[in-house]
Amino acid sequence: MLKRISVQQLTLGMYLKDFCGSWMEHPFWRSAFVITDPKDLASIRASSITEVWIDCAKGLDLAPDDSPVAVAESVAEVDIELASTASKKRETASVSSGVEFARAARIVTRSREAITAMFGEARMGKAIDSVGAQRLVDEISDSMSRNPGALVSIARLKTADNYTYMHSVAVCGLMVTLARQLGLDPQQTQSAGLAGLLHDLGKALIPTAILNKPGRLTDAEFTLVKSHPEKGHQILLEGHGADAIALDVVLHHHEKTDGSGYPKRLKGDDISLFAKMGAVCDVYDAITSDRPYKAGWCPAESLRRMNEWTKGHFEPRVFQAFVKTIGIYPIGTLVRLSCGRLGVVTEQGSHSLLRPQVKVFFSTRSNERILPTVIDLAHADAAYKIVNIEDPEKWKFSNLSAIWSGLPNLPG
């Protein structure tokens, strides 16, 4: 029997079926598990969640003199209630990047914590519940619906210690928006997002010292790193509710269309559409992010280089669709305008990939900062155009991310 109870009634030994509220309100990436750790119990009570569902058939029941808030005879009744609650809270109406940045920052932080916990459980040999991971995908997907560039831009800001987890968030978001651009149906889009979230799960079994090594890997270390697709695939197979698309992408996101990839050296049409999508999204986020062994390239420069690799590495149709999703000048790109001012891209153009919104903040003529001003290059009377992509390192701008996001403390 399923019972909805107050978190104050929750005790060790109870089987937690689900939380009555958004996953953003509690500290766990999944919900169905037996509560055995007093720290978990304390975390639940300290969160903003006030009620949960327990399954008395799989764990301890309430004390005889304790009354539940509600009782359900079947899982279906609980699922309907939770689905109804979730649908009321989900917001997907389009907003500007400036509006979405703050919300996206919270989602990135919460997702990073959840994925860190997920990888930790994988290291300890615990089964991964793909259904539980879907909750993260829903929140990331909703952010991408509101604004395709905000979350991915923030997730690009990583440190060496959290690279793998933030990378998973970014690739999830990129997969969702790419799937929509390719015209995939909602279920396929959600599966693509889940695949992006889990694509590097096998790295949970690779020593952190190797993943974060600042110097060149030895042949043995590189061979170990290249084993992560197969390790991740096996982890999912041993878990619960493994999605077929996620299994495929986890195993094949390092395959290349010319057959030079790994682990199976597949080529051309032998690689699924979803694995080809995973390859593009994985590489883009990797090369735009700072790594222990190299600084990330700027978004626009990364697209230029990826275009050079299209023959043999990426499926041209998939790559072209990807460029349309993030723009020729992605958010955060430092550009020089024809007036001599420097600015960062804050929003894609509504009608042209070549005319985004730019926040100008520096004059190259006077060589000094100016009052930040947003210029919409797509506006009919816009007098300026982008003449060059600039290297942030050359100009030594230390707070570029705060300029384009408007947020002083971004997750990273």
TrEMBL record:
Q: Which CDD domains match?
A: HDc
Q: In its UniProt entry, what is this protein called?
A: HD-GYP domain-containing protein
Q: Give the matching Pfam families.
A: DUF3391 (PF11871), HD_5 (PF13487)
InterPro entries according to UniProt: DUF3391, HD/PDEase_dom, HD_GYP_dom
**UniProt xrefs under PROSITE patterns:** HD_GYP
- The residue ranges of the HD-GYP domain are 142-338
Species annotation: Candidatus Accumulibacter contiguus
Q: What is the lineage of its organism?
A: Bacteria, Pseudomonadati, Pseudomonadota, Betaproteobacteria, Candidatus Accumulibacter
Q: Which residues cross the membrane?
A: none
